[in-house]
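Morning, I've got a small favour to ask if you have a moment. The fold is given in discrete form, as structure tokens running alongside the sequence. I'd be grateful if you could look everything over and explain what you see. No rush at all, and the record is pasted right below.
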Amino acid sequence: MSGGCSVLWCALLLTLVSTERCGDGHCKCSRARKTATCTSKKRTLNYFPVLPTYVKQLRYNDNYLPRLSRGRLVNLTKIPLEQLSLDDDGIIRVDRDAFMDLKHLIKLQISRNSILNVSVVADTLQQVSRSIEKLVLVHNKWASIPPNMFDGLQGSNISLIDLSFNNLISFNGTQLFKRIPRVKSLFLDQNPISQNGLEFTNMKELFKLSLQNTYLPVVPGFCDEFGRSSLPRLRSLYLDHTSIKSVSEKDFSCLPYLWKLSLSFTDLNAVHNNTFARLPVLKILILQNLVRLRRLDYLALNSSSLDKFQFGSSNFKFDNKGRYNNDLFKFASNITDLELFNNEISDGTTLKTLVWHLVRLKILNLQGCGLNYLQRGTFDRMPDLRKIILKGNNLNGWDPAMFSKLSNLRKLYLSGNNIAVVNRSSLDFINKTSLRLIDLSNNPFSCSCQQLWFRDWLKATKDLEVPSYPQRYVCRSPPEWDKTRLASFNYTQEDCREKNPWILIGSLLGSTVFLCTLAVVIVYRHLPTIRNVIYLLRLRRKGYVKLVNSSEYDFDCYIVSCEIDEEWVFNTLSPTLEEEHFYRLCVPSRDFDLGANIADQIEEKMQDSKKIIVVMSNDFAQDEWCQFQLEKAQERIRLQGTEVAVLIMLRDIDNKHMTSTIKDLLHKSSYATWVKGKIVTQLFWDIVLAAIEKPFGNPPIAV
């Protein structure tokens, strides 16, 4: 039954990722996704070809269409087109009635057409279909928007407008939204807009506003001249990557329905008293990466409605009591999800005092805070706590009663600490909780007699998930057991009693002879596997090292593979890395933004990924897009070293298909070879996982 399901699943997945040539051979179409992508080399495509009737989304990118007219779009009227993206097509002129006959159009995107005059687009919108809901006008280098820009959309279903990545220095909602007051989402990201260039009147229905990467020095004014809210229904506000240095109560007093607020990557140096107190329904507050923050006032987090607070990677020194008050969370005691990762909380007493009032907490993330110990009773007042993340600290252990009162605890992460020995009393709490997962990987375990109980417990545990066991449960002491898996530590209770040393020496010599003989046989018969073993040992020769600044990336790994190899990516690579090891992968065919330029997407997503996984084969070597991505990867390698790339040889590449770029990469870097078989496959995954975790700055030596 399971085999049949697997076959059906594979067939469905293959259907979803498969494409066919269409549109006079200029386009790629997907029946499953109902999409078509038409892109030409050297901009040779200058018309809209006939497309299959199932197509509802068209990406028309990197072509040459200096003029758009009603007649030129006639072939698009033969399909139920709902989304049209015109990206970097050299558009200069658009006739007023160009889009008139696209009756089903829901989303229109015109981007990267910098020669196109904004007034031409404004005139065209006069006769666009009333069914339009989303209008995306990005990367067009427009410095201003005509007052009548959206007047033609009056009476339409327009709900989203995106004007990001232009050169706008102002935005006057009073004029622009006069005819379309029901717009719910507005994006003005990546524009040089300053404080004096914003006006939000006539935007009463706006739910979401994004002003990221603008020149705002302070929070914009959301009150009108009479003190009333200009955006009374606003639910989400994004002010990330701005120059805002301080926030106070008056800044958000006119946003009564604000539900989510993000001020990450700003220049905030202080959060003053009651800043969020007048936001009665605020649920999510995101203050990530505030590296200039020096002060949190006593009532800075005064918010009885706050449910989730993200305050990671700000390097805030909680050990310095002069920067905040011990009762910081006293007035935000309803928080259930708290992220404090990558701040400084080395003292366990400081942590206990800091979270004392959070009695409703369900999720607590303290990764990379430099914690040296946990004070007894830290979590006793949190009966609903379900997930605790303590990765990458300096903990040597914990009090046996530390987690005993957490009856709802389900997941506990303690990887990457300084834990050498785990005894029976350390894990007695498991039977008193609802624990389903415990992660103790990447600790410097001691292969000693004190460790026998834990070794046997790991082998016998069936009902509890133990991630990365046995491959990342490795001994670091004593020296004779260094880099040995804990599962391979073969001492028995009898061995731990005093014995004749000559018997031990004889046993060791016999084992050595046997292992040497076995090694010769393995080398002779399994050379590819031996190469994998050598690669793995070199990757691990420094043991566990915590990667720094991982929060700077949206993805852990960017996947470079050809279309033919995507079946292996989706059926094997992705489930193992994403579902079993919780890595965030960027797979271009799955994660690229709809309608965006492919080349730009490759560069953007690759930069947003910590590592680059390259899946190589003959088909890969012949694929032009793969070679383009490989060149981009080479740029990252030149900047950050060979550790940035994780190379996988899915199938050997013939000499006739071996490009100079691939040959140069293989000469400088080692690669993992995909081999089927229970043990050798596990070895393969060990290599891939170790390569992903390996920090930058210590390149592996090519085998």
